[in-house]
User: What shape does this take?
Amino acid sequence: MLSYVHRHRVRYRECDPMGVVYHAHVVDWFEAARTEALREAGLPYRELEESGVIMPVVDLSVKYHASVFYDDLVEVEASFPSVGVRLPIDYAVRRVGEEKVLISGRVTLCFVDRERGRPVAPPDRVRAVFERE
Assistant: This one.
């Protein structure tokens, strides 16, 4: 299973007046972890798009277990349990050095042929990456 950890320092602009991360920013953290995981695996999203494949989000869920605060250094772990026409990614956000999951979630992408706008099987190079993991 492909897994990647992305570090992020919580910025002031990401917080509400109480210094707690505003919920919508977590989706951006998930995207950063996902795109960097794919890049690290040799699948930069830009190259997939240039080959005619796009990957829109088709499902998203987030659970907030505990607050994250301004200036916290967090790790956003992205795990890819399987690959098919749909690509689910599981996320766990923790403060660096701590085990407790503060936020968890899942985003599901779908491989889509850009020209036809129809779902397609993942390209061979994508399958190859996931098969070696």
